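Ticket reopened. Same input as before:
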Amino acid sequence: MLPFTVVLKSGLPVYEQVLYAAKKAALTGQLRAGDPFPSVRTLCQELRINPNAAHKVVTALIDEGLLEVRSGIGTVVAQAPAATREQRRQLLEADVERLVVEARTMGLEVDDVLHAVRAHWQRLGRTRR
Amino acid sequence: MSAAIETHRLSKRFGSTEAVRDLTFMVPEGSIFALLGPNGSGKTTTIKTLMNILEPSAGQARVLGTDSRRLGPREFARIGYISENQELPEWMTVRELVAYCRPMYPGWDDAFASQLQRQFDLPPDRALKRLSRGMKLKAALLSSLAYRPRLLVLDEPFSGLDAVVREEFVRGILEMSERQGWTLFVSSHDIDEVERLADHVGVVSEGRLQMVQPLAALQARVRRIEATVDPGFGRPASLPASWMGFEVAGARARFVETDYRTETSEALARQVLGVSGVVSVEPLSLREIFLALAPTYRLPT
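Engineering reply: fixed in the latest deploy. New output:
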């Protein structure tokens, strides 16, 4: 089993989808510093994906400082600097796009969407406290 | 980038029938290349020609640098091949099959063979003829992987396998992933299985190569675009050549852009349709891409 969640969809490059899922897991704390990260072999076998894609994912995560290589152990999740607000916001991009597309399909204006988001936000805020 | 397989105008005719014609393609070393097409489109003939079981009528193929017509035992020690109707010595047990194959390959890896046997749950003392089709295929895969070939060629490996065995089979193949420069050439009509696995795809139909592309390039190039159009919108007399399957229903126009560019495609849509808004731009699955690129192409099922 992989220590983070990936649901692969058709049509998008596998590499992008897995990279996105791993980053999200690292930035939101689903993956914790020091946790071992799956090897290329485990990644491609668990997801039944192209090994070159799996290799690219691991390389990209190392380049971005989210993983580090420890000799004898393999790759582990790096002690990431707390994700900046901007990095966390970027993770929402795909969801925002979907929301906007849906809203436009329904002929809504941006204010309708903002209003709905605000209302929902406040509702959640109340229940949490 | 060096080629694991390279063909130039490869053709094979049987009497007056041209089974494959003028196939020119390159399989980069280290890639997973999927040859897709319906049954009878020439996939098996292509593979048999590559494996020197058939001689080309014209053109040529080079496999791991050697002309396909000169492939012999020395080359086959570095090539794994499982044919569509793989025949195994049915009277042997799994253990006997392993013992039988082992001396033929200098690169045979005993530890890897045992690992695969456990992983595949293959009973060592059961005769092959008493194994299910899935089990037999796994035994064939074991005997083709254990010598760690540089090139693995699989002809329709997924047909007739249930989902569980198919998954085991793919995981077995991916045991090879640690080896650098290892190449897989797989023919299939199972587009969905191949979509995750392949990084290059070729499509054959009626013996001709319809298209050959890196999968990522294909995925990046094709988008389904939907836009709202004004009431009473008339279909433009001419549409951009890269638009496929244009249709209008009510206030909605939809088409597949086969040359998508982030900067220009949406603007082009607005200009051509004279409209308000592009509502959505969605990627397509490999299956949908095929349908869009070749509406007349009989899609493998």
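DSSP finds six helices and two strands in chain A. Chain A has a mean pLDDT of 85. Please confirm and we'll close it.
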